[in-house]
Inverse folding.
């Protein structure tokens, strides 16, 4: 099976440019997460792939099967694309039973009743809801509804399954379980999927590749580790993980490293800027990479510890100095007062 | 009598089916049987009428008994609607009423003058008054005196006006007692009202004084007789000026509080005018119905329905005889002829109406 | 490009709707530029009709009176309707469950019936008037003044404002009200300062609607305006006929064109307001099941106010008409006990067309109503989720028939049935009457159905599309089953409207196709008030039965 390829897609709603030329590809068996803040266009991109939104430029297609091509004036309606889509609200038809909800796609494909029955039962068994086939959606819990929605999208074996924030309607604890369940399901069945989410942890957990969108363009794409450990832009760096932000003046930038000055002290990190010395720059460092020491040293700032917070498996410490606030983790609480906060050189990106 | 009659008709219809000509009513031309046969083939007659179905029902039932096999389809409409519908249907040639029977005499005469009626000299012509037949097309079918109707509870016997002059005097001498208590048709909004007031002017010289007096006592003008009589029975008004005697008579039989006066100086008499449509789909059945309606038998039913017969050979409280007994030779039937077209003359209408508007204010 | 079934369907429906509305409408407009009936060979084009009407003092009098009445109606109906909605939706007024269906009665009872009921109840010698005269020595009201006409028209249109305001209020979060409450506002202040301003677009929308309905007011001025010669545009049409002796279609057509010209901008305004209203409704909160606002000591006062309104607008006229149907006579000096009778009903049974009329009325309400709802649904579905300028056209088209008085719409349809060859065989069947009703009530029905459609979440339909269902299949498998109950409710409301309708059918009915409404009008003309009142009671009972069924089935009577 060929890759799903979206090329240079542009889309506007009213006067708003929602997608400004986005390209994404999904290889068979791959799970791609579309990640981004709200308004970045991730859901619109997903709906455009499904055929529910109307782009005005670019192409969408799987191999020789062209879904959309602005230049060739091809626009396959949603029902002809054969994809599976799971809605954020699940969109289960309230007037149909679970069985009928799941079986509808097969019925539309004119499969014989017997085949529909076996395939729906098999799919329901895969998602662990075989016993609920005769229920109506409103008789199910939120988690069960979400599974039915996924089964409905899977049952006719679409080449790619599209998931629109499928976990966002579940409460926090259930969401983590569902995340693990969904990843397992995708891997077991060898599915190709596009998964829209605004939750970076979810994206990293589920996806083989993350496409990070910002205001209708791709900020960065790649495997989760690359986005997390090697952000190419300040936006990516700040969007992924929990971060500390140092505002300072660039002192020196040569090759791989850059040095900035904060409170008169020099801090060196990885060079990600093209700015000239003397201009304002930003240093970003993940919370878990910042640590605390009692002595001064290179790349350390003297700061005052405010209230330590107990998070269960560890402590979170909040340091301040003038208008700078820095957060860090520790395994044990420290005494409030003056401490030295270290920003390791290989864990600080200067933008 | 009835049994014998229906037996005869039964025999007659048998005769028809055997191919023999139907029986001809006495005094009718010999070939009338052809019309009867043709009518039975047509099987129905469509009537557009302003006479409500309740009053007309006995007539319809009796006709259907007389001519089994000819069904009557009866539609009652108000006169404007009837006129609108008839001219539109005639123009489209898509079928319309066979017999057009309306109390709006002027509109009926106009339709005949416009050539929408069939010329058909009824065998009953000689039994009818002269004024009631026009161009062998339009036939008067009733003899309806226009009456004063009053509330017996509330109008003292001494005040009941016996003629137009008495009414004028009453209004001039007791304007306060009758303020807002008089009611009449509105000549501005109702065709009937317009006709009535214009006939008054012809017959009663001080008519405009009367109209002014009516204006001064704040007479209320309506567009329907029903609304007027209802308000006279209830006492909201006490005297209604110019009500069809037929309505008054029928109503007074139900409500003994309602009194009727036929003014003794002159009583205008109107008639419901019938003609056969030129585009009739069932012309023979239409002829049958028209003749029946004018015949003695039909007119007896008309009288029984309180519609006042115009044949002088019928005894009833709704007949020429009864009216003559009350007012002698003071009846003034409105003749069915081209003079009625004058009432439709726009310039005259607008002139009358502007004078009327002043009178209404008492000027 | 191949013809996509959905596109074909949409344009087919659009075309048929346009045709159904445009045929009678264009005939009327065309007629207004002629000198004689359009089928008269002597007719030629001219502006004479326009200059006649515009130079006629009566026209201007009728025009300004109509505007006065419309304005007065809005002034009365809008604040009362909005306040009523607030009380019913948001507060703990007692007996809400039972009050709600009663509130809507004025919409479903024919205006002629209400008006005549008023004459018997509070006319100069009406039952309550004589009572008041005995107590006070004078009658403190005058039913026949323009003022009374405006008050009655205003009060009977309160339910329209209520319906739209209540719907908007239901969609509004209650947090805002609770916040005002906590800050110390009385319930009345909450209503005036918080809730009602929030639903202002909906209220304005209803206000424009009431203004609009004022233009086609007919039954009330016909009966109540008759003695005082209060002329409005719809009764001016009658007077026109008499001015010239014969009916002059061109003049009537001019008046209709004027009405359309005045009301068209109103439709436009309504569209704008509606868009605004939807924007507001999106302020949906989570507190949908919140507790009603406690009125405390005001509770019974509010209840009494609603009851008073009900007595004045519903109970008094219905009592009047019912009483009239059981007495021989009434009025000054009559002891009602002496004149009680059942004769009117007995006579009614003898009336040859009455039984048929009742059956037909029922038929057109039940069967005709169902088919009409099916048509409205077909149109609404065609427009549903159609991103195109054509939908705006449909919005306007469906509103146009509303601007024609029912009587004229009926006459125009008679012309259509007469002069369109393939339609003429249908003229003397119930089909013609059904079509006339369906067209005249198009706007109302469309609003009912599209209101239901709006409640279907778009993702339910999209889910079916993605699963492989074509557009039409989605409508069949998903949309229609989901709006089933909404359609049922619409059917019921259309039933009530069709059973009540009286002026539209007059030109189209014939032997065998009588309906109660037009029988009432023709009986009214001949003076058989006894029968009119008895038949009115029958009509009201039918409507009452319909309402009872509605409540029993739990149909929500609001859109």
């Amino acid at each position: 099976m060929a890759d799903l390829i979206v090329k240079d897609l542009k889309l506007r709603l009213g006067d708003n440019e929602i997608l400004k030329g986005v390209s994404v590809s999904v290889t068979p068996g791959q799970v791609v997460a579309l990640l981004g803040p709200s308004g970045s266009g991730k859901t619109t991109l997903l709906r455009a792939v499904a055929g529910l939104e109307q782009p005005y430029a670019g192409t969408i297609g799987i191999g020789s099967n062209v879904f959309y091509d602005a230049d060739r004036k091809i626009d396959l309606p949603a029902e002809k694309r054969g994809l599976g889509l799971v809605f954020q609200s699940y969109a289960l038809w309230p007037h149909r039973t679970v069985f009928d909800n799941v079986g509808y796609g097969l019925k539309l494909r004119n499969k014989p009743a017997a085949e529909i029955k076996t395939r729906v039962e098999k799919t329901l068994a895969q998602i662990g809801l075989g016993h609920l086939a005769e229920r109506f959606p409103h008789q199910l819990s939120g988690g069960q509804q979400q599974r039915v929605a996924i089964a409905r999208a899977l049952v006719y074996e679409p080449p790619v399954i599209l998931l629109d924030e499928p976990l966002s309607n579940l409460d926090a604890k259930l969401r983590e379980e569902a995340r693990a369940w969904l990843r397992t399901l995708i891997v077991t069945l060898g599915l190709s999927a596009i998964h829209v989410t605004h939750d970076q942890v979810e994206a990293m957990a589920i996806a083989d590749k993350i496409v990070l969108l910002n205001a209708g363009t791709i900020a960065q794409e790649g495997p989760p580790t690359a986005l997390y450990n090697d952000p190419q832009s300040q936006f990516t760096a700040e969007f992924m993980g929990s971060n500390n932000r140092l505002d300072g003046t660039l002192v020196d930038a040569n090759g791989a490293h850059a040095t900035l000055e904060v409170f008169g002290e020099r801090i060196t990190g990885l060079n990600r800027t093209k700015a000239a010395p003397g201009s304002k720059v930003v240093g970003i460092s993940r919370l878990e990479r910042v640590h605390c020491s009692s002595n001064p040293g290179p790349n350390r700032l003297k700061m005052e510890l405010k209230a330590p917070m107990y998070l269960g498996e560890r402590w979170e410490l909040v340091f301040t100095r003038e208008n700078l606030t820095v957060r860090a983790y520790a395994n044990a609480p420290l005494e409030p007062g003056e401490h030295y906060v270290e920003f390791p050189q290989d864990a600080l990106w200067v933008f | 009598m009835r049994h014998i009659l229906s037996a005869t008709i039964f025999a007659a219809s048998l005769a028809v089916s055997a191919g023999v000509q139907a029986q001809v009513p006495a005094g009718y031309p010999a070939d009338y049987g052809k019309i009867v046969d043709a009518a039975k083939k047509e099987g129905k007659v469509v009537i557009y009428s302003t006479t409500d179905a309740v009053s007309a029902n006995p007539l319809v039932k009796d006709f259907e008994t007389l001519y089994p096999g000819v069904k009557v389809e009866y539609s009652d409409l108000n006169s404007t609607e009837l006129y609108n519908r008839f001219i539109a249907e005639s123009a489209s040639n898509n079928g319309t009423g066979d017999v057009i029977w309306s109390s709006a005499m002027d509109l009926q005469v106009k339709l005949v003058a416009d050539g929408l009626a069939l010329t058909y000299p009824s065998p009953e012509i000689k039994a009818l008054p002269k004024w009631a037949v026009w161009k062998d097309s339009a036939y008067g079918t009733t003899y309806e005196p226009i009456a004063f109707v009053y509330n017996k509870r509330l109008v003292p016997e001494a005040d009941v006006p016996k003629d137009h002059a008495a009414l004028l005097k009453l209004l001039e001498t007791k304007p306060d007692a009758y303020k807002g208590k008089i009611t009449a048709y509105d000549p501005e909004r109702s065709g009937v009202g317009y006709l009535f007031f214009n006939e008054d002017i012809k017959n009663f010289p001080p008519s405009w004084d009367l109209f002014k007096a009516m204006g001064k006592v704040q007479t209320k003008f309506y567009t329907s007789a029903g609304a007027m009589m209802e308000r006279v029975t209830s006492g909201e008004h006490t005297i209604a000026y110019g009500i069809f005697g037929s309505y008054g008579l029928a109503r007074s039989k139900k409500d003994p509080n309602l009194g009727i006066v036929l003014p003794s100086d002159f009583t205008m008499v109107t008639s419901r005018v019938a003609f056969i449509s030129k585009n009739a789909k069932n012309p023979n059945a239409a002829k049958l119905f028209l003749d029946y309606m004018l015949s003695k038998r039909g007119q007896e039913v008309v009288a029984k329905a309180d519609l006042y017969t115009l044949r002088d050979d019928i005894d009833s409280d709704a007949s020429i005889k009864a009216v003559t007994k009350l007012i002698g030779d003071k009846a003034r039937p409105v003749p069915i002829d081209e003079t009625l077209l004058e009432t439709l003359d726009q310039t005259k209408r607008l002139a009358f109406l502007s004078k009327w508007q002043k009178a209404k204010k008492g000027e | 490009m191949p013809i996509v079934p959905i596109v074909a369907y949409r344009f087919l429906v659009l075309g048929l709707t346009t045709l159904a509305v445009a045929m009678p409408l264009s005939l009327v407009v065309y007629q207004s530029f002629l000198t004689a009936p359009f089928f008269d060979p002597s007719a030629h084009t001219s502006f004479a009709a326009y200059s006649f009407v515009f130079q006629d003092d009566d026209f201007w009098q009728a025009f300004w009176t109509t505007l006065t009445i419309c304005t007065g109606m809005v002034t009365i109906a809008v604040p009362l309707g909005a306040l009523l909605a607030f009380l019913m939706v948001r507060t703990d007024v007692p007996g809400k469950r039972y009050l709600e269906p009663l509130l809507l009665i004025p919409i479903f009872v024919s205006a002629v019936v209400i008006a005549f009921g008023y004459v018997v109840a509070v006319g100069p010698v009406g039952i309550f008037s004589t009572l008041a005269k005995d107590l006070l020595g004078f009658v403190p009201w005058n039913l026949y003044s323009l003022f009374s006409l405006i008050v009655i028209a205003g009060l009977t249109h309160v339910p329209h404002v209520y319906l739209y305001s209540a719907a908007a209020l239901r969609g509004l979060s209650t947090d805002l009200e609770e916040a005002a409450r906590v800050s110390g506002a009385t319930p009345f202040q909450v209503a005036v300062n918080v809730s009602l301003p929030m639903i202002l677009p909906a209220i304005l929308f209803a206000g424009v609607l009431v203004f609009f309905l004022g233009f086609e007011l007919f039954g009330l001025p016909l009966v109540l305006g008759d003695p005082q010669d209060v002329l409005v545009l719809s009764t001016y049409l009658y007077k026109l006929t008499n001015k010239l002796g014969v009916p002059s279609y061109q003049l009537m057509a001019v008046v209709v064109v004027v009405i359309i010209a005045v009301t068209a901008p109103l439709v436009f305004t309504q569209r704008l307001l509606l868009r605004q209203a939807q924007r507001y409704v999106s302020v949906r909160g989570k507190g949908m099941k919140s507790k009603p606002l406690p009125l405390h000591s005001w509770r019974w006062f509010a209840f009494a106010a609603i009851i008073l309104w009900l007595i004045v607008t519903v109970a008094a006229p219905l009592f009047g008409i019912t009483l009239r149907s059981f007495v021989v006579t009434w009025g000054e000096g009559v002891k009602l006990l002496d004149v009680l009778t059942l004769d009117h009903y007995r006579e009614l049974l003898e009336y040859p067309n009455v039984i048929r009329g009742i059956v037909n009325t029922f038929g057109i309400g039940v069967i005709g109503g169902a088919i009409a709802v099916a048509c409205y649904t077909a149109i609404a579905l065609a427009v549903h989720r159609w991103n195109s300028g054509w939908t705006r056209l449909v919005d306007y088209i469906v509103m146009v028939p509303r601007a024609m008085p029912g009587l004229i719409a009926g006459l125009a349809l008679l012309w259509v049935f007469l002069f369109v060859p393939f339609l003429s065989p249908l003229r003397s069947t119930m089909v013609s009457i059904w079509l006339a009703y369906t067209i005249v009530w198009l706007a109302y029905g469309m609003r009912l159905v599209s209101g239901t459609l709006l409640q279907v979440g778009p993702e339910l339909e999209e889910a079916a599309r993605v699963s492989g269902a074509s557009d039409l299949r989605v409508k069949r498998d998903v949309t229609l089953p989901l709006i089933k109950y909404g359609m049922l409710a619409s059917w019921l409301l259309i039933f009530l409207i069709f059973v009540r309708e009286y002026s539209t059918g007059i030109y189209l009915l014939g032997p065998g196709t009588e309906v109660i409404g037009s029988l009432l009008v023709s009986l009214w003309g001949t003076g058989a008030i006894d029968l009119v009142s008895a038949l009115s009671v029958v009509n009201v009972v039918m409507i009452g039965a319909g309402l009872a069924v509605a409540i029993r089935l739990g149909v929500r009577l609001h859109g």
